[in-house]
Amino acid sequence: MKPRTKARSLALQVLYECDLTNHSPQAAMEERLKDETLDTNLVKFAYDIINGVFPITRQLDDFIAQHAPEWPLDQVAVIDRNILRIALWEFAVEGCTPVKVAINEAIELAKIFGADSTPRFVNGVLGSLANRQQEIRQKFKKVTSPEDGKTAHQN
């Protein structure tokens, strides 16, 4: 597994755990890092994904639900939902990953963690969402707070 794919995998596992339990993302990540050896930059990348996706899960889910109408979101497997959330955050919210790369990485995670039909499902939903990338980015437009200089997502 490529290093950044491994970091995404780690973030996916943490988000999955948080979806199923009341564990905090921080506690889940700390527990995962006991079993993983990752370069500092990759740990930061995984944290960036977790800290980017976790607070806006509902808003990401709203966009995903619009592009998977035949699958009500509560019927989509938890792992599949989190794969979609990560990719959508990467290419449309944070803009840190090109669309094609984010989709390909999501498909790789789907092959590893999802059911046999998950890669095709993930590809279809993300392909539709990619067409709305600018609209989604506007929804999550970053604003910087003048008081502390920290970046937050306005939605």
Plain-language structure description:
A hairpin with a 6-residue loop joins strand 1 and strand 2 (about 150-155). The chain has about 160 residues and is mainly α. It has one domain (about 5-155): Orthogonal Bundle (N-utilizing Substance Protein B Homolog, Chain A), CATH 1.10.940.10. The radius of gyration is 15 Å and the shape is globular. It has helices at about 5-20, 25-35, 40-55, 55-65, 80-95, 100-115, 120-130, 135-140; strands spanning about 140-145, 150-155. The model is unreliable at about 145-150 (pLDDT under 50). Helix content is about 65%, strand content about 5%. Helix 1 (about 5-20) crosses helix 2, helix 4 packs across helix 5 and helix 5 runs parallel beside helix 7. A two-stranded antiparallel ribbon has the order 1-2. The chain has eight helices and two strands, in the order H-H-H-H-H-H-H-H-E-E.
Number of domains: 1
Order of helical and strand elements: HHHHHHHHEE
Task: Determine and state the CATH class.
Answer: Mainly Alpha
CATH architecture: Orthogonal Bundle
Shape assignment: globular
Which class best fits the helix and strand makeup?
Answer: mainly alpha
- Tell how many strands the DSSP assignment holds: 2
Number of helices: 8
